[in-house]
Amino acid sequence: MKIAERFQVSHFLVFYLIHSLQFGVGVLGFQRIVAEKSGRDAWIAVIISGLFVHISVWMIFRILKDFDGNIIDVHKELFGKWIGGALSTLFGLYFCLLAINVLNTYIEIIVVWMFPDLNSWLFTSIFLLLVYYVISGGFRIVTGICFFGVVLPSYLIFTFFFPIEFSDLSNLAPPLNHSFKDMASSTKDMSLTVLGFEALLVYYPFIKRPEKSKKWAHLGVAYSTLLFTLIMMISLAYFSEEQLQKNVWATLTIWKIVEMPFVERFEYIGIANWCLIILPNVCLTFWCASRCLKDTFKFNQRILLALVLLLAFFIIPLIQTREKISFFNDLVSQIGFYMMFGYIPILFFLTVLIKKIKGRKA
Question: What is the CA radius of gyration of the chain?
């Protein structure tokens, strides 16, 4: 697949593409889920999950380099037209589920913390219209939204340091006080939060000189892992284990103690600004979903995008209770976990095997 240079983006922007998808709505409440099994060692599970993401990103670059295309070309080459097309369709639907999960979780936060009477149909329709407007401008516009989605709300990072004066760092000791099984379970629970890097499988051909983007992709993963680890350690030091398990949105609870002369409830400011972080999340995942379907069925991407957004419009308002949202989160988390630890390694080993076979024949 050859993409005209006017549609491509510079290799260093992969940093923002990777980080903007990883650092999303999960940051507002991942602490309770990850710490449920590993307790005070949860920050170690965060680092381990980050290392696995680095390995997965390395595998992705190796796979795409050998096939000189995106995941659609890989599927077609490895599995043929029909099976490859079915896998590519499922891949597109996976990104659609990921986008729905992000937007639906953000709507839940708004309803619980700010506007209990929010009309979810109205909010969803307005947000999806904005998403369609952004994506219809092309991949370069989506990349620009990802850039601003990282840069503009970056000041929020400093708000995570407010609880330090009320924290007890001795809560983090002793380290490695849990079993291997507990750490593995926490690492698995972290999978939903770190998902998003696999979008590289779709937009790889849109990167100028992709071989130079490797370091920027790994820097994006490292930056995300550093922030996750910092937030987790601060949360573990600030909350007791019992308090952390009762806080569905631990990050928002931390923001409640932020005191400034000009604002009384900073969590409202944080939630409103988080929209700038959610927008690139949703735009890039829906772009990946529509692109997968376009490359598979050779159909107009804007029409497919409209169909995908219409599907999301009808699904999101149906998943509004806590039980349904938890079930949907678990479903996407499971799919993402097997994607990271199962599907990508399988593709990698198949790629290596085929390369060796071709080398022997030559």
Answer: 20
Residue 345, both tokens: 């390694």
Residue 34 near residue 212 (C-beta atoms within 8 A): no
* Beta partners for residue 207, in sequence order: 9
Phi, psi (rounded to 5 degrees) for 207: -100, 130
Distance between CA 52 and CA 56 in Å, rounded?
6
Q: Tens of pLDDT along 55-79? A: 999 999 998 887 778 889 888 888 8
In degrees and rounded to multiples of 5, residue 337 shows phi and psi of -65, -45
Structure tokens at 285: 């995942």
List pLDDT tens digits, range 131-161: 999 999 999 999 999 999 999 888 888 888 8
Residue 11 CA, chain-centre distance (Å), reads 20
Number of H helices, E strands in the chain: 17, 0
Distance CA 280, CA 195 (A): 14
Instruction: DSSP letter for 9, please.
Output: B
> Other CB atoms closer than 10 Å to residue 230's CB: what's the count?
15
DSSP string across 152-195 = GGGGGGGGGGGGGGG--GGGG-SSS-S-HHHHHHHHHHTHHHHT
